[in-house]
Design goal:
361 residues; mainly alpha; two-stranded antiparallel ribbon; 15 helices; elongated; disordered N terminus; disordered C terminus
């Protein structure tokens, strides 16, 4: 392919067209074909695909599941006009956040894309784009239940299901709490509101709770993920400046510990046991009293001191962080650099330009 041929096509100023062109190019780079409705020569995706094939040649199809999923998500975002950060959200990132069981309904994921149990990559904050820290994999049924639902509505459904003892809109109280807490991880809240949310679901991989009190909630909860939790929680209590706060914290630990011990010694059962323990009224009451007494400044101070002492123990969804960074271990993953096999040319400005590129191969 002669580089001079590529320069015949002037660059576009339309960001949407540039994005579509890049998506088509990456389909060609991985030896995949875009969906049939986008294969008309005038579409940016088709133009990028044709240019990629002209420059890169025919390639063996990419068979890796996360690569196909990555391209599908980018097409979905492009069609909906939603931002997609390709530096952060890569096939590797999608592999990292992949789960085999829905964290909301706790059912195995699988089946066709239309199946209620099909895995769906959801934006926890639907008003934000596809960026690291805002994505989680849940089942299609759970995704449909949260559609159009904000945090306050999910909390109301959870409380209504608790009071009535029956499912609301097809989900029980625990499932609604898990949906609400997932949304809260990416929703800045005042301390008095965030402290009243149970940790009904552990943060998915790559998700860092934006509220300090929830990060402390998670840090304390993970102390129960391995033997020796009693000593570790005593160490945290020793960091508190007042006897009253230490007493309140110990009362909370005394409420949470029996619920966790009921799960037994099977590590596979521990994440759900930790989540379920938070749905007990006594655990929530003790935590709220402690967190509200500690206050915003006290929460940040305790997070910093506990983080300086060392990492939290490992848990199924939270591998051991680097030493000396327990609180920072809850941070989002580093930004991944997107790699490309050869830079794409400028977007063809017309259908004729696209045909010239294709013919020049």
């Amino acid at each position: 392919m002669n580089q001079a041929t590529l320069e015949l096509a002037p660059p576009t100023t339309d960001i949407a067209d540039r994005t579509g062109f890049d998506i088509g190019w990456d389909h060609a780079r991985h030896g995949l074909v875009p969906p049939a409705p986008l294969l008309h020569a005038g579409t940016p995706v088709c133009q990028g695909w044709m240019a990629g094939r002209a420059v890169l040649g025919r390639r063996a199809p990419g068979t890796h599941r996360t690569t196909r999923q990555w391209l599908q998500l980018r097409l979905l975002a492009w069609r909906a006009g939603v931002a997609f950060d390709t530096r952060q959200v890569t096939p590797q990132h999608l592999a990292r956040i992949h789960v085999t069981r829905c964290p909301v309904l706790r059912r195995p994921l699988g089946g066709t894309t239309a199946d209620p149990a099909a895995p769906v990559v959801e934006r926890l904050d639907p008003h934000a784009g596809y960026v690291a820290g805002n994505l989680a994999v849940i089942g299609r049924l759970a995704a449909q239940a949260r559609e159009g639902m904000d945090l306050l509505q999910a909390v109301r459904h959870a409380r209504l299901a608790e009071l009535g003892g029956e499912p609301v809109a097809g989900l029980d109280a625990a499932a609604w709490w898990r949906l609400a807490v997932l949304r809260s991880f990416v929703t800045p809240l005042p301390l008095h509101q965030a402290a009243r949310l149970p940790l009904a679901v552990l943060p998915p991989a790559g998700v860092r709770p934006v509220n300090g009190v929830q990060r402390l909630q998670l840090l304390v909860t993970l102390q129960f993920a391995a033997p020796g939790w009693s000593e570790r929680t005593r160490d945290i209590a020793a960091l508190l400046p007042e006897h009253t706060l230490r007493h309140d914290f110990n009362l909370f630990v005394g409420a949470l510990a029996p619920r966790v011990l009921e799960a037994g010694a099977n590590p596979a059962d521990l994440p759900q046991a930790l989540e379920d323990a938070w749905l007990h009224e006594r655990v929530q009451r003790r935590w709220q009293h402690f967190a509200l007494s500690l206050g915003e400044a006290g929460v940040e101070s305790l997070l910093a001191q506990a983080g300086a002492r060392g990492p939290a123990p490992p848990c199924a969804r939270h591998p051991t962080p680097a030493p000396g960074a327990a609180s920072r271990a809850l941070a989002a993953p580093p930004r991944a650099v997107r790699r490309r096999t050869g830079p794409p040319p400028s977007v063809p400005a017309s259908r004729a330009s696209a045909h010239r590129l294709h013919a020049a191969r």
